[in-house]
Amino acid sequence: MKKLLCVLLIIISANHLVAQDSLRIARELLRSEVIRYSKPDSSLIYAENAVRWSQEIDSKWQKAQGLVMIGNYYQIKLKSDLSMEYFLKALAAFQELGDSLKIGATYISLAQVNLEKGLYDQAMVNNVLAMEIFESISNEKFLNRVYNTMAQIYSSTGDYESTAKYFLKSYKIYALKKDTINLGLELSNLAAVHQYLKNYDSVAYYYEKAVYFLTLKNNVGVLGNANLIMANSQQAQGHFAESEAYYKRALANYQKAGIAMRVGDTYFNYGTLKDTLGITQEAIEFYEKALMISKKEGGTEIPNLASQKLKLLYAKLGNYKLAFEMSLLNDTLESNFMSLEKQQLIASLETEFRTKEKEQQIALQQSALSAQEARLERNQALIIGLALIALLLIALVVLVKNRSKKKEQLIKQEAQLKLREAELNAVINSQEKERNRFARDLHDGFGQLISVLKLNLSGLTDKDAQHPEKRLEVFKNGESVINDMYAELRSICFDLMPQTLVKKGITTALKEFGDRITQSKKVVCEVIVFSNKERLPEIVEISLFRICQEWVNNVMKYAEASHITIQLTRDEAELTLTVEDDGKGFDAELFYSGKGNGWKNIQTRLNLIKGEFDLDTTQGRRGTMMTVNLPDASIKQIPTSTESEITA
Fold first, then answer.
1. Contact 156, 192 (CB under 8 A)
2. pTM score > 0.70 for this model?
3. Is 53 in contact with 34 (CB distance < 8 Å)?
4. Residue 68: C-alpha distances to residues 109, 313, 397, 497 (Å)
């Protein structure tokens, strides 16, 4: 009897100890769940403790739940292979225990990992398996997660309308249950999908609601997602200052949450903002951070994109050594990225193949051996026929492509010849027009003054000319006429080829040109120059001056402007000429397609110096701005030329 009591006491004591250990494990699992987004690293420690202690007391269910929490940690850290490994271990354990609720939940987790890896078919299969389980037991809570995952699958395949529909379903269920933990996540998802749909008002609406719940629950990781979504939305709308503020918030959130991969994503997006604004050095700094962090975390897409951006920026700055090194790195990363995509495709095809293989086995079991042989013979003949047809189609496609390519080349050559012909006609017409104007100026201006001078000098033969006073008057009048002749001659010479441009450069020539226009009292012309005193190649100075001259003459003829501003700026990257007026706007397409020689002359000059042309004008609105950009690298490559070579 005493021995029996001792055994009972030992059993009771052992059960008590197991119960205490089980309670301790439950606390660790709860702690891991509560802080898995706000403090993921601490969450991992609690989950690993739970798994280790569960093994010691052989608590299979708690061990499986711990494996799920570890899988959640690696999923948050975007380490898909590790998260998949732990979810599969957990699934096997729950299937052994027969826990259908947890089996369905783990299928959802696996679907989400498949989604992250780009295996959309497998993601859909796992999600449907989960849906069947939860529909059979009418579990609305987990059906909500199924809707969420379904939305993510549709989003990844580009069907954003279906994505929004399933996210909204999920959100409504959480709202009815007042589940504040998941409400913030769903609102953030809705903001993201409306960004893809370019519904920016909806993005802002869901963002504000999401921030409230995410802040309430201190979910800094998802809060980082929301801020990144809002930053991208603001950038897409051209609100660059607001976009930068949201990028800074996203960085702070991800750094606090310890989600390094998302930090890398944010730095890359932040870099695109700086790149768009032309702040090259800061853009390089953010791209380099994105490349370093994402590469360290095992990312493939962001390192590939960041190295590609850095390659272009280094080349733009003239640092060709770094550009070359980054180009080599980009080639390697792009190759790895494509290899990963191929692996994902192979895995997807393997799943599809296995499914078809099972269907084929069922069909083979239902068929007789004779029918099977006949079908194989027919299939073989069909395959041979299809192969021959395929070869013929391939040959036909190659032939059509070759012909199409040759036809395109002929069309391009004809277009180039027509363009060259148009440019030559424009130059010839411009020369003839200039000669006519030169002859008219000589006849109407200089010729008339010569006639006046001749008439004045003929007065010296009159009898009154013997008087000193009369002779002095004739000399004074003659001097006045000669001064006018000199001024007229200078004006004609300036129009032909300003000596100021040849001797002192475009800066002085533009200022003299502006002064002459202002002195005409038809319009006020202001010239602003922000440039070093270094002379440009002669062909560049002449081309920019002629473009400016052509444009200002057109403004004075047609725009009814009262003020013209000519601005010339030059920095390390480029040289920019702008002409802005307050006259009537016009249809830019009519200007480009017009029959006049104005645009053709400008286009010819631009082609000579490899310049870029931009026009900002609208019909019915006052104010027009013409801009010519010339990269500094192009200026250095242009040889010295003369006006005769330009018009040759």
1. no
2. no
3. no
4. 9, 44, 53, 82
> Which residues, including other chains, have CB under 8 Å from residue 610's CB and lie 6 or more apart?
630, 631, 634, 637, 638
**Closest listed residue to residue 236, CA positions, set 285, 185, 287, 276:** 276
Hey, which bits of 432-513 come out as E strands? none
What is the C-alpha to C-alpha distance for residues 540 and 417, in angstroms, rounded to an integer?
25
CA distance 187 to 164: 11
Residues 6 or more apart whose Cβ sits within 8 Å of residue 316: 280, 573
Query: Encoding tokens for residue 488?
Result: 């007229």
Reduce the DSSP state of residue 158 to 3 states and report it.
Answer: coil
Number of H helices, E strands in the chain: 26, 5
Question: Tokens 């994109």 label which residue?
Answer: 305
What per-residue confidence (pLDDT) applies to 353?
43
Percent of the chain with pLDDT over 70: 76
Pairing of strands 524-530, 563-570: parallel
> Residue 4 is encoded by which pair of tokens?
């029996």
Q: At what angle do helices 100-116 and 140-156 cross, to 10 degrees?
A: 20
CA distances (Å), 285 to each of 288, 328, 549, 626, in order? Answer: 5, 19, 42, 33
**Degrees (nearest 5) of the Cα angle 456, 459, 464?**
140
- Tens-digit pLDDT profile for residues 628-637: 999 877 777 6
Mean pLDDT of the chain: 79
- Distance in angstroms (rounded) separating the CA atoms of residues 304 and 282: 19
| Single-letter amino acid, residue 159 | D
What sign has the CA pseudo-torsion 194, 196, 197, 200?
Answer: positive
Contact residues for 118 (Cβ-Cβ < 8 A; gap 6+): 156, 341, 344
Asked if the model's pLDDT at residue 2 lies above 80, the reply is no
Distance separating alpha carbons of residues 391 and 90, to the nearest angstrom: 50
Report residue 410 as tokens: 């002929």
Q: For 165-184, what is the mean pLDDT?
A: 80
Q: Which residues lie below 8 Å from residue 630, measured CB to CB, with a gap of 6+?
A: 540, 544, 574, 575, 576, 577, 609, 610, 611, 612
Taking the CA atoms of the chain, what radius of gyration do you get in angstroms? 40
What percent of the chain has pLDDT above 90?
A: 18
Q: How far apart are CA 292 and CA 300, in angstroms?
A: 11
Higher pLDDT, 148 or 372: 148
What contacts 420, CB < 8 A, 6 or more positions away? none
CA distance 389 to 385: 6
State the sign of the Cα–Cα–Cα–Cα dihedral 240, 246, 247, 248.
positive
